[in-house]
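I would like you to sit down with the record closing this message with an eye to the fold:
=====
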Amino acid sequence: MEFVDRYVELEPIPLRAKAGDRISIRGRPQPGIKFQAISIGRTECPKPLSRDDLLKTKSYHSPEPFMTLSAGSDSFTRTGKVLADGRFETEIPISSDGLTGVYYVMIWVRDIDGKIFLASQRTIVVP
């Protein structure tokens, strides 16, 4: 699954990985937009639902992040950088205690007015 807004251009990431793999995240915000953070969340792999169970579902939401790397933080600058032209790159671990599941990679940006918002959300399956 992929949600990418017009505010950032990202290089592709793998659709599948093994728990503990590290993946590279590279991108470039559009003019007037600044990279803010990368968050990682995890949910269980989906399981088939019966028709009755499916009809009971009301909404969908992204999982809460278990890790957030903010631009300029020690945790981000250890493996990543933001360049003068706004491009950013880092490596992130795909792991939440070695659990399988669907991992959500969320890219947060800030606009010229200081508003922070989600510009991209991609998923990686860890079987």
Observations:
- The longest strand covers residues 116-126.
